[in-house]
Structures are given as structure tokens and as C-alpha cells.
Amino acid sequence: MTLLAAERLNKAFGGVVAAKDVSFALAEGEMLAIIGPNGAGKSTTFNMVGGQLAPDSGRVLLAGADITGQPPRAVCRLGVGRTFQVAQTFLSMTVLGNVQMALIAHHGRTREVVARAEALYRNQALALLDRVGMAAEAERPIGELAYGDVKRVELAIALAASPRLLLMDEPTAGMAPRERAGLMQLVANIARGQGIGVLFTEHDMDAVFAHADRILVLVRGEVIAEGPPEQVRANAEVQRVYLGQSGHRAALRARRAAHG
């Protein structure tokens, strides 16, 4: 079933066209990566889907419902979670407290007094932390964690809204290579196990080729290729303008990993 559809999205800033007739679809449980060189329109496209930007024309459909131009909070309430290139957490709070606050916000109980808020949704928060492998760190201040662990907590925070669609902006940014592979495999397992669609932007071609079901390539605001990783890797235009030898090596590593 099609979960997300972008139809001929256009966006310009002054005389600069950031997105031109961008169209794609994302199914339940599918992971779609948006890649391209700097200035390709990845962030613009991503933000039009998430509500941070309204397109000049075109539509964004979530499970068939038109969500074009709705603000991020409204988009979130409709079942869209998001993680950011720089993790968005409360560093002075515990790991558990961060996830509890996400659950409290999702359930519209942010006006509860602090003493009561500390007891709200504790079990649900622990269950989410267990899902991302962070339950053992629940009582630690999040500011003490390694950055890779913070990104796992951020994933738990995003999952607190029970999303149908997860938007991930550079999910592995700032992480060590081994941490990147672990996080992306975790995301893939959760997405496919629960039927959550994942749209992500990423510069790490190892992560893209190893975990994306399909890849959308943008250059100067236009889609130049879309398809499974091997098909995109073999595309001569993609090789010329973006991937080059780095993409070839990443594809080979992903293929070797998939076959043990």
C-alpha cells in the first residue's frame, strides 16, 4: 500500500529553483533514501514533506490524505515522526525522561505538574528504550551518553508518536562507522517489522546501499534517477554527476555484507 506520495513538488527561493516537479511514492515498511550533491534539493524536498516548507505547487499525500502545507505539528499528529541531523534531546534530563516527555506531548498532557509528569508513561517509555537497545541506560542523564547512543534515544523519541511514516535527516551524521551500521539496521528492522515507511537523506553511501530499498537521486532540484540500489548504481548519469568511484565501492561493500 502506498503510504506517502509526492506529486510534482516545486519550490523556488527568489530566482533559485530548489525543487522542480519532484515526484515519488513510498510504501508501508519501505526505506527510501534521497541522495544527491550539495544543493541538489534534498533538504527542500524533505522539508516540504514534513511541513517545514510549503511547496509553491504540487501535493503531498499521506495514506491518500492531502497534507500539503500543513505545519509540522499537524503533520506529526497525522502519524509522521522525525529525527534530525543534530539530535534533538533535553541534555539535562535522563534518557527515560526524554522519552516520557515525548509520550506526554503525544498524548497532549504537557500541562501536568512536574511531579506527576515523572510518573506518566514510564512503562511505555521503558518499552521504547528496550526496542532501541537503550533500556539499561534509562536512568542516566542523556548528556553523559556517547553520541551514537543519543541517536538511538532520539529514535525512541520519534517512535513515541506511533508514526506510520518516519522522516530521518542524516541519521548517521556524527557517528562512527560501526555505530552507523548498527543504527541503520535497527531502523530497518523496526520499519519492516511494523510497516513504518522511512524516508531518509544520507551522505554515507555505505548506509544507503546497505539499507535502502529504493534510492531517489536529485540534482539541481530535479529527479535524475529512482530505483533499487543496484539500478541506481549502474545509472551512467548518476555515476557522472554524483556517485563516481565512492558509490561503486559502497555498493560492493553492501553486496558483500548482504551475502555474508
Automatic annotation (TrEMBL):
Keywords: ATP-binding, Nucleotide-binding, Transport. SUPFAM superfamilies: P-loop containing nucleoside triphosphate hydrolases. PROSITE patterns: ABC_TRANSPORTER_2. GO terms for molecular function: ATP binding. Residues 4-245 form the ABC transporter domain. InterPro entries: AAA+_ATPase, ABC_AA/LPS_Transport, ABC_transporter-like_ATP-bd, BCA_ABC_TP_C, P-loop_NTPase. It holds the Pfam family ABC_tran. This is ABC transporter ATP-binding protein. It comes from Falsiroseomonas selenitidurans.
